[in-house]
Amino acid sequence: MPAALPWLLRWGVYSLVVTSAVIPFPPPWNTLRRVRVTVSIDGLQPEHDARRAPATYEKILKNLHGRTADVSWVVTNQMLERPDYLDEYLAFWTARPEIERIWLSVYTPQKGEVSDERLTAASRRRLLKELPRLKASYPALVFPDGAVDAFADPPAGPDRCTFARISSNVSADLRTGIEPCFFGGNPDCSECGCAVSAGLHWLHGQPLVAGPDGGTRDRRGAGRGPASAPSAPVSASAIQSCRRAASGSMRAARSAGRNAARSVTRSRAGTTSA
Ligand code: SF4
Predict the structure, then answer these.
(1) pTM, rounded to two decimals
(2) Based on the structure, what is the number of domains in the chain?
(3) Atom number in ligand 1 closest to CA 108
(4) Beta-sheet pairing, 216-217 with 35-40
């Protein structure tokens, strides 16, 4: 990571570094523009410590001292079996002075997987119903408008997944490619819980219009940016152009960097590289 970050910063790339915090990250990383550090926390202390030793709560809190970070939270089915678990988790971490934001994802299984982590249809519905209330109660939870719809309607497959199509993922050696997305293997897209994938998929279906002043507006003219002349629609071809530009950037980055990755990736085993 110390070798990759200078490349990413030089390219102007925004980087989210995901760590177990079993080793303290260098405090200067908190001063780097376009870099955020995120710690994976797999539940409340008993569950996390059972799964993640030696990255225990005690060690994480010690290693975060004097630093700021976000939390990466993957909601599993076990967390939904006990009432108030989600509230207890958010209450604990949003109260920590070191923590700025909580990034929420939902456990994404492989096809045919049978595990305690995999959400049932009922628990998924319950989670989606709870999320708006949780966001209102814990503002540090990163949960934009449309997120419930996004999680409820994930892409049908990798070929329909905007994130998979515009991202390039490599393993910790920064060379071995991971397909079809950063989960690797044969993920069950119908239960995808990746917040980025869901968000892009949802955004892709939104009827956006952009004014000549650069503001972004909906069809009624409401939205961000100064109101001025009539807006012009952002066409499907414009979106395709963005995709092509992103794909082109990916190819250029792979070619130029050789030893660095264009995007932060995280394997199912929890290995994180950039
Ligand atoms: S990010 Fe989600 S929807 Fe996209 S390919 Fe991977 S599992 Fe499927």
Answers:
(1) 0.74
(2) 1
(3) 7
(4) unpaired
What mean pLDDT comes out for the span 221-227?
38
**CA 117 to ligand 1 centroid distance, Å:** 17
Which range of residues forms the domain containing residue 225?
4-273
Other residues' Cβ atoms within 10 Å of the Cβ of residue 236: 9
The residue whose CB lies within 8 Å of the most ligand 1 atoms, and thus the one to mutate among 160, 183, 203, is 183
- Strand-pair category, 232-233 with 223-224: unpaired
Confidence of residue 181 (pLDDT cuts 50, 70, 90): very high
Locate the ligand 1 atom nearest the alpha carbon of residue 192 and give its number. 2
> Considering Cα of 157, then 158, then 160, then 161, what sign does the dihedral take?
positive
Q: How far is the CA of 107 from the centre of ligand 1 (A)?
A: 12
Q: Band the pLDDT of 125: cuts 50, 70, 90.
A: very high
C-alpha separations of 174 from 76, 179, 211, 256 in Å: 28, 14, 40, 13
**Spatial contact of 169 and 177, defined as CB atoms under 8 Å apart:** yes
Residue in 192, 201, 264, 268 to alter for ligand 1 test, most ligand atoms within 8 A of Cβ: 192
The gap between the terminal CA atoms of the chain, to the nearest Å, is 7
| DSSP class of 74 | E
* Highest averaged pLDDT of the listed ranges 65-79, 150-164, 171-185: 65-79
pLDDT tens digits along 28-71: 999 998 999 999 999 999 999 988 888 899 999 999 999 999 99
